[in-house]
Amino acid sequence: MFKINQHPLERTQLLELATKYGSPLYVYDTDKIEAQYNRLTNAFSTVKNLKLNYAVKALSNINILKFLQGIGAGLDTVSIQEVQLGLTTGIDPKKIIFTPNGVSLTEIEEVAKLGVQINIDNLSILELFGQKHPKIPVCVRINPHIMAGGNSKISVGHIDSKFGISIHQVPHIKRVVENTGMNINGIHMHTGSDILDIDTFLRATEILFDVAKQFENIDFIDFGSGFKVPYKEGDISTDIEQLGLQLSERFNDFCVEYGKEITLMFEPGKFLVSEAGVFLAKVNVVKQTTSTVFAHVDSGFNHLVRPMMYDSYHHITNISNTEGRDRYYSVVGYICETDTFGSNRRISEISEEDVLCFHNAGAYCFSMASNYNSRYLPAEVMVHRGEDYLIRKRQTIQDILHNQEVVDFSIIKKNSEEAIPA
């Protein structure tokens, strides 16, 4: 259960970090990441072979990847660049699974050369890959036609989704296997993010079990992730312990039916890092209008886009003044568009220069940040065993200009003039 003013680090330490590293600032607590990892592994402790592959897209800083690798996680990747990031940490390529969507055969082949587990989500590429590389085992992503997730933008297992091969096309998959002689060694699904109804999720797992039975050489079933974490006071989350009890029993029974111990996989991202991260921003201006009090911070949706993109809720606390009288504010950014983090929020009285803390900022926050308005990306700090470490420097104007090529317009003008006949 989420509690008001709950954050992974102490208020005084966060204020010290804001002073030390400046704002805006992302801060991640590895203790919380490890606690979430252990919670998930404990929930499935009765499964003989369990593998958790962290979804790199949630938060891709290589220090976070190294930490997760150190506590036993593999990596779930969606691009060759994420694979390359993972490999820089020294992880065994066999502990990485590549689950792209709509990428070219060329990219899949390049990843396959790196020794990574390939996961294919469409019949066309499956057939082409099987014809050219029948000896490389692949996993197939199934679309179970199950609607799950917090909203339409993050629900990816329904019938109109672009993700996965329809369950009704399993005969086509089998025909491709027969024609190419390729080996299907895994079955995968991902229904969507912010799953609350575990019964719906369990219905989808039954679909995967039925599909897996139709292939002889399955080594693992990857059930995706999307487990919901709490965002606000009184909020509820996925009952991981209950899911663990029910799915573990069913999975163990399936292993008996299938005739061998296969691996149960998940690909948690948000579940592991969301609550471990906070975003700190300083208040530039408190602006009273005829109807609203705005708290303008030194950031915007260029740094934290989820509220504007997904209507996501991030709890906001004033860590500079926790004992003040509560008032109502709309917290907004400095981008020259509507740029709202939260409307009509009850927050301890805000003054200019106060530091506001945005909770649940570990997942899909920095990783979706941009240089919109030519603003710098913020710094990232990792707190590990109580000590803080700078894991990404704040950008400078040199970073903004990097890779931009300057055209000499004087030469263009001169060449144009010379080209005009006298």
TrEMBL record:
Span of domain Orn/DAP/Arg decarboxylase 2 C-terminal: 26-362
Modified residues (N6-(pyridoxal phosphate)lysine): K57
EC number in record: 4.1.1.20
Superkingdom of the organism of origin: Bacteria
Keywords carried by this UniProt record: Amino-acid biosynthesis, Decarboxylase, Lyase, Lysine biosynthesis, Pyridoxal phosphate
Reaction(s) catalysed by this chain's protein: meso-2,6-diaminopimelate + H(+) = L-lysine + CO2
Domain (Orn/DAP/Arg decarboxylase 2 N-terminal): residue spans on this chain: 31-274
InterPro entries: Ala_racemase/Decarboxylase_C, DAP_deCOOHase_LysA, De-COase2_C, De-COase2_N, De-COase2_pyr-phos_BS, Orn/DAP/Arg_de-COase, PLP-binding_barrel
Active site residues according to the UniProt entry: C336
UniProt binding sites for substrate: R306, Y310, E337, Y364
GO BP terms in the entry: lysine biosynthetic process via diaminopimelate
HAMAP family: LysA
Family statement: Belongs to the Orn/Lys/Arg decarboxylase class-II family. LysA subfamily.
Assembly: Homodimer.
Function of the molecule: Specifically catalyzes the decarboxylation of meso-diaminopimelate (meso-DAP) to L-lysine.
Protein name as annotated: Diaminopimelate decarboxylase
Species whose genome carries this gene: Polaribacter irgensii 23-P
Gene assigned in the entry: lysA
